[in-house]
């Protein structure tokens, strides 16, 4: 696509749809949209439109496509990787006027927003309600939710709360044809591939986001902020590594070197020394008041041990706000030091931070340029800002050479090309250095599924010496070829094979592919189908890369959960996943997106998987992601493959984020007189500032139990137990509090309630938490009508409900069908032999059906992998 003068007829059609004032074509107006915050390069669009509704966006896309124009979406233009620069002119769709907060549901902890809502404005709206949208990029006073989603933005507080993808539940998208669809409806764990995770961080290349359902996080009861001063940025980085290694997970650990201090010191009355080398580490912890000072004291002691010479607490909210405003204003204040800066965004394993800071200092000296270091140290996310004068060609060259030197060293130390700002046009040429040709082709295949004409944001993310279409075509050609010579080594259909190594599995998969045989990946010990070859990962065990001080581990896919926990325990670490069978393999848990009660406090498995090693349908090995805690290098294929049930590839290794073992824990088990009383207790609990890690509801045989688990500092745990049992008393419940072995036993029995039992039926329902009580009534009434017995276990604050159903098989089938037609996300997980369901077992939303199909066909064109795991049945 090339830039053309704005066609008069197209302009008139756009004005008819959006209104004359919402269509900009004058050269002066277009120059406002010719670059983003990076100023890397500028190029004006041919036309700018300012829609206010999703349908206006859709119609603009349809009209631009008919005219053959490139289409670039833009939020506030605060990006610094050139992601919103319209390199090929065309139509720019600014979402700035799509700034409505459409709905807020505090019980479900979600909000529905348009993409032009400013991050800080959303948080200002939520604060009186006691909630926040946790991602807080430094640009949050200007950046929009749509832009945050496009780059999977992070921010200072994502050390504790995670990046944007951890807080987006669903998005509405306008596709390349101008059609609108939702990737979900905001419930957790709906069937199908994780299109929400795929869209997040895709930089506007897979569609235009026109609305989002975002997760809300309760505001903490208490916050502590301390500025620790160090003699050098290297010393501060070493202290950060030591804090993480000691098992402390504060809310934030942010570094500002002496140049950053100089930029903001006077404007924000920080009163910090500006001597060369002096570096400030901003430490924040938050949570319930109880035990918070002890947590901060432990971190401060580590800082002192690593050379902190001054500690300055920000004792009141106003001072804390001033510190954070100063930190987030550094980039904007660089004008005090230099005419411009070149920002390098990269992430390394946290233990590599001191080495990286030493390297930056060497580059500073070698090239004779000043560098301002301000970065998210707790995540290993570096942001060296190279200060230079863009009018001086030699300074421009040296600035780019320093940036290249930082990125090269980052990649050599296990880092990634971008942590939170995206690839844009700035880092396209680094993609082949990070990805193998097969990996780039896989990313391009995703691009081609959602952007087949290349209309959306062209010339971004991918190397400039080729095109996504060419890369996707190369992969498609590879997968179309089938050589009988290679296929001759394939086993007979129905075979069960457990290769000794992933390399042997790759050879086997290649043979099966060329022989036209289907393959079913498994972590188990039995053949799965007489028509396919079952390939098991059961021989692959143990750690491949374990970095305890980084809180990350990579294990072979056949490693069981019990084995993983045993590896982590000597380091006082854990994976907070509780399942009925701890002898299941990590690969199978990831492939099925296994769920556990503690997701309330720690997040879901999808949030902990950092990287996957995968064999493609023809045995080609690819790596998805990296063993770092932030990464926006290409599309988030890790989330796409998590929960894909072996339909896209065979997982051979998994890299995970792990957690410190909490110092204390306890569970209040509260028996309530009725389901209504139990729901009232749960509703009351949801409005408090308590932070339980699990809230489980169990009901069967007339018993109604609410179990609340708390973990952390002993004082915080004791506070939780005291207050939740007071709630139980208020609602006429009885209770007991368990800890230690008794607590472990209780949770083992609880998760066993939704484990696989071959002679029973197990259903899983997903609903908005605000509909939890009404859903329980629906479940009970349907059970009475169909004459079945139901044992219910639910993650009560998350809206996930498991039903173990017993009774006549025909009655169970009718019960399943009734729920299926009433509750959109009803899945049949386990059924007895010869059970014949009346409706789809998946409960797949029809809005994503054709996209799921398109992805499967593009990635596995011959339906080689797990072909019986059918995601594609329409609802009846």
UniProtKB/TrEMBL annotation:
Keywords for the protein's UniProt record, in alphabetical order: FAD, Flavoprotein, Oxidoreductase
InterPro entries per record: FAD-bd_oxidored_4_C, FAD-bd_PCMH, FAD-bd_PCMH-like_sf, FAD-bd_PCMH_sub2, FAD-linked_Oxase-like_C, FAD-linked_OxidoTrans_Type4, Oxid_FAD_bind_N, Vanillyl_alc_oxidase_C-sub2
Signal peptide: none
Necessary cofactors: FAD
Record-annotated FAD-binding PCMH-type domain positions: 41-219, 489-661
EC number(s) recorded for this UniProt protein: 1.1.2.4
PROSITE patterns: FAD_PCMH
Domain of life: Bacteria
Enzyme class: oxidoreductase
Gene Ontology terms for molecular function: D-lactate dehydrogenase (cytochrome) activity; FAD binding
UniProt keyword annotation of Flavoprotein present: yes
Protein's recorded name: D-lactate dehydrogenase (Cytochrome)
Organism: Chloroflexus aggregans (strain MD-66 / DSM 9485)
Source organism phylogeny: Bacteria, Bacillati, Chloroflexota, Chloroflexia, Chloroflexales
